[in-house]
Amino acid sequence: MLKILSANIVANTHLSIYNENCPVCGNNISQKCLECADTDNECRSLLGMCDHVYHKHCIQRWLASGKNNCCLDNRRWE
Q1: Percentage of residues in the chain having pLDDT higher than 70
Q2: Alpha carbon of 65 to those of 45, 48, 49, 59, 68: distances in Å?
């Protein structure tokens, strides 16, 4: 009989990201957005429920302009 006394469980997640470049500024998601480019600021990215990724500053600017949808698939940004 084998009895397990402890276990280290490792989770593996996979994100279905459909874009490599920010739809607003055009820069690669792994690079800084235009607002952060010449600063020492960390440039964060946000993943929407639509599985599209934006730089945080870019999607904030997009939403502040009165648009509340993903500019790639026109779904409500969440």
Answers
A1: 78
A2: 19, 18, 20, 10, 9
